[in-house]
Amino acid sequence: MAERWERLEARPAGRLLRLAVGFFLLRSLKGSLRGVYLRGEAPEGPLVLALNHHSFFDGHLVWLLGRFYRRPTSLLVAEENLRSFPVLKLAGALEAGRVREALRRLRRGEWVALFPEGAMAYPGPLRPLRQGAAWLAKRAGVPLLPVALRVVLRGYEHPEAFLWIGKPLPPGEDLAGALGGLLAALDALLAQTHPREIPEGFLEVLRGRRSLEERILPLVRLFRP
After folding, report:
1. How far apart are CA 149 and CA 146, in angstroms?
2. Phi/psi of residue 219, each to 5°?
3. Half-sphere exposure of 99 (CA within 13 A, CB side)
4. Are the CB atoms for 119 and 53 separated by under 8 Å?
5. How far apart are the C-alpha atoms of 209 and 190, rounded to whole Å?
6. CB-based burial of residue 149 (10 Å sphere; 0-12 exposed, 13-18 middle, 19+ buried)?
7. pTM of the model
8. How many Cβ atoms from other residues are within 10 Å of residue 90's Cβ?
9. Domains in the chain, ordered, with CATH?
10. Using CA atoms, how far apart are residues 140 and 127, in angstroms rounded to an integer?
11. Using CB atoms within 10 A of its CB, is residue 137 exposed (0-12), middle (13-18) or buried (19+)?
12. Handedness of CA 190, 192, 195, 200 (dihedral sign)
C-alpha cells in the first residue's frame, strides 16, 4: 500500500493530486483561522521537528511550516489515522511505524516531524514525551528542533495559530525541557498580550478569515458622518 502511493507520487497524476491536497489544506487554514503567526528561524539542513499537539489544525500547520521554508516535510502519524484518508501521504503524512523510510528522508536532507506527546489532548502544559523524536535524531545524526504551537480563540471571531520555533538541539539534549519551556513562554506571552494585538516577535505568515466586524468596517466608515 505504501509503495503504491510512493509510485503514484512520481507520476503526473500523483503530482496533480498532491497539488490538490495542498490546495485543500491551505483552504482549510485560510477558511477556519484568522491567521497563522510565526516566531523564530529554522536552520538549514535536515531536522527532526518536535511539536506539542492539542488541536485539529496541528498537522495542517506542520505542512504549512514546511511549505513556508520550502523543505520537504514528513509528519509521522498513527497508521489508523491514514486508513480513511491515505491521500494525505501525498502531503507528507508517513506511518509512524515506517522508521527506515523516515531515516531515509532525513538522510536526503528532508524534515521529519513528530508529536512526541503521542496523542492530542486539551491545551495545557507539555505532557510526558515518548522517545521517538530523540531516537530518530540520534540515529540520523541530525538536530532536534522544538516548535511550540497554540491555536487559540482570542479577540476575534476566528481562532489564531501561533508557532514559536526554538533553538536546535543536538541529539541527546533535554527535549522535554526545551519544548516545555518554549510552550510555557508562548502561553505567558499570549496571556500578557492584548487579545487584538500580535504578540511581540511574531509575524503573520498566513492571512486567514476576517471577523464579521472587520469585513463590514469599511462600510461603517463610509457612512460615518
Report:
1. 10
2. -70, -40
3. 11
4. yes
5. 20
6. buried
7. 0.90
8. 20
9. 2-209 (3.40.1130.10)
10. 25
11. buried
12. negative
Yes or no: say if 118 and 18 are a contact pair by the CB < 8 Å rule. Answer: no
pLDDT in tens, the chain (225 residues): 555 656 666 677 667 888 888 899 999 999 999 999 999 999 999 999 999 999 999 999 999 999 999 999 999 998 887 777 777 887 888 898 899 999 999 999 999 999 999 989 999 999 999 999 999 999 999 999 999 999 999 999 999 999 999 999 998 899 999 999 999 999 999 999 999 999 999 999 999 998 888 788 777 677 766
- Grid coordinates given for 112: 521529519
